[in-house]
Each structure stands twice: as structure tokens, then as C-alpha cells.
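writing this on my phone so excuse typos. first protein, seq and then structure
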Amino acid sequence: MILLSSFLHLRPRRCGPFAGLGRGSGPAAGSRRALRVLVDMDGVLADFEGGFLKKFRARYPDKPYIALEDRRGFWVSEQYGRLGPELSEKAISIWESKNFFIELDPLPGAVEAVKQMANLADTDVFICTSPIKKYRYCPYEKYAWVEKHFGPEFLEQIVLTRDKTVVSADLLIDDRPDITGAEQNPSWEHVLFTACHNKHLQLKPPSRRLQSWTDDWKAILDSKRLPPGQAA
């Protein structure tokens, strides 16, 4: 597993054409500080569910599968395990295989939206993603996927961690409904990104959703911004 402890207190960086990825120096006196946004990768930027189902059916054409509209619960392997004891391990073997992560398609509008987000004034954007424990391919392929779709400038903005609660930010956009870890009160607000496995969940206020990248994500960011001169 790759440990990036330096990202626990993330520092903004200037990254070529993505000026919004970091302003270099801190905000001037009287100006508002940069909003820090963490964006999950699998299920938010990359189509994990669609990529998994396609490869599962290709590798195990005679085995039962779960259509995307019938997916329930974050853990794919648990739902497949309820279909048959051996199907859980077969499901896991798909995303442990070489080229699974690098070949995932971007979700509609994801790349364009995050590039726009990264170019907003006073906004620092990081891709915050959890590698699987069988790390032979996953960490490398996650970096390669970001470089492929966002360019090498965005490699500075990747956070690999198994525990997102210890990363400091204002917002976390993530499709996992229950994000827990060492920090019981994370600094970020979790905005649930709608996916096939969580669309049936009813959120209790003040919890919020982002239905898709065509939804008004800018309004969510703006709701977290502090007035000029106000400290965090």
C-alpha cells in the first residue's frame, strides 16, 4: 500500500493549466481562503459498477449476475455472495485483476466538471481514493487513469488513503454512504454522489446528494464558502 502521509494536511499547488488546483501562496489579507474539495474516484469519476459488470459477465458468462438497477449496498462482493458462496470471490477477482482500474470509463460529465471545478477561483480540488488491499495493480492504475483523463498536471492532486476521515477538507463527494475511520468528526461535509447501489437510500437532513455531474455542483461548493475576511 502506498502511504502518503503528507496529504493529511494538504497543501495547495500550482499545476500548469489548472490554475485552480492551487494558488501557491496563501490568500491575501481580507480575502477568503480556498475551498478544499475531495472527489472520490470509483463510482464518482470512474464507472466502477459498469466496468465490473461488463468484465464479470465476460469472464463468467454462465454465472448469475446482478443488473445495475438491482444493485443494493456499497459492497459488490457481499451482494454477489448472497447469490452463491463462490460468487463473492469471483467478484473480487475482477477488480484485483490487471487493467481493471485503468480501463474504467469516466462517468458522464465527470472529467469536464472536475476540470471546471479545479479552475474556479479560491478552490483546491483533490482526487481522494482508497486503493484495494491487494495492491499489485490498483495504485499504479489509479495514477495512470488520472493522467490519462486529466493530464500529468493532476497527478499532484491525488490522495491515496484507506481512511478518508483523516484528510482535512471542506467537502467530500463520494458514493459510499457510510464513511468511517479514525476521526469520528471529519472536517469535511460528505455529499453523497448518487450511484446504482445507493439511489434507493433516503437521506436525513442536513445530508445532501449530488445526483450526477449535470446536477448543480457549483451551488454545493458555494454553500460552503466563507465570506471574505472570515476565518475558518
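second protein below, same order as before
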Amino acid sequence: MLPAQEAAKIYHTNYVRNARAMGVLWTVFTITFAVITVVVFIQPYWIGDSVNTPQAGYFGLFHYCIGNALTSELTCKGSALDFGSIPSGAFKTAMFFVGISMLLVVGSIVCFSLFFFCNAGSVYKICAWMQLASSTCMVIGCMIYPDGWDSEEVKRMCGQRTDKYTLGNCTVRWAYILAIISIMDSLILSFLAFSLGSRQDNLLPEDFQVEEKDNA
């Protein structure tokens, strides 16, 4: 059998190595998640036309395009900086919460710099809370967004059967689906960050020593 001191050092080395490997994976996935949230926020493909819609087009959180029945050209409107150009109050609210979700994830990446100055366990937990809050905001944004489907602009594209939470002849596009998937991603990342924070708290000190019994 290995002496107690040597066994403790091997355990400590493996524990630190595993914690660092998990930390690297969490960092990579957090950066990937941040890119996803930015794409979800800016892309205007939350809902769109189908073969049965009166007009071609698509809608995002703030930007949308609707086809002209005579020329078949798309007329695009909407800007995140111009609330008056957004066709529904629900879209404005959804944009706000998804935007906050995006900023929280980007903020968690900025917090990576704190690893150089603060306790690693505390930094992991700060990022975990930010990612959990990001997930909550994304849930709210995704739930509120369909409340704006009864706006006149959406009905012009999707047909008069369109109403709140009823999409009529239109279909859900990939950006909306990606937003829903990102909720689960954020929850997983936040739970992993909490786990990493706890592991950091439980790490043995570098100078761990086990007192050997000199006298039987």
C-alpha cells in the first residue's frame, strides 16, 4: 500500500486535474452559448411564412420583412433602437428579456477575468447565478413572444386566423427553436458552474500533509 502522504498527493493531483478539465469544457461551452444567444437576438427568423400564407416574410424580435402581393419584393422594417418600429408590445417586451439574457451571458464571459484576482470557487458561483438568471430571462422572452402574434403586421403575413399563441398559416422558424434549446443549455451550464464552484471549495491545499505515525 502507498504511504498516506503519497496517496493524498495523488488524490489531490487527480482531483485538481479533473476540476480543471471540467472548467475548460465549461468555458468553451459558455462562449459557444454566448454566440448562440447573440444569434437568437439579432436573427429575424423566429416565425415565418409557409406555402399557405397570404404573403411571404418572416419575423424576429424586432426586425421583420413582409412581401408585397404585387411585386413579391420583401419590405423590411424594425430596429432594436427604434421601439416605434416594432409591431407589437409583446415583441418589445420579449426583445427586452432576450436582450438581458444575452447581456448576462456576455457578462459571465467578462467575469472570466476575475479568475486572476479572486477565488476560483467564488467566480464560478457568480457566473452560475448569471447564467441561471439568463435562462430565466430567456424563458420569459420565449413565453411572451407569441402574445404578439395578434398584431396586424403578423396577420397580414399569416392570415386572419392568427391570434395570440395561435400562429395561423405561419410556421415557427429556427431562431425561436434555438432560443428554446438555449434555455436548457443555460441551465446545464449554471448547474455545472455551481458544481465547479463547490469542487474548488473542496480542493485540498497544495501543502497538504498527512502526519505519519512515528510511534506505534
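The chain has a mean pLDDT of 84. thats all i got for now
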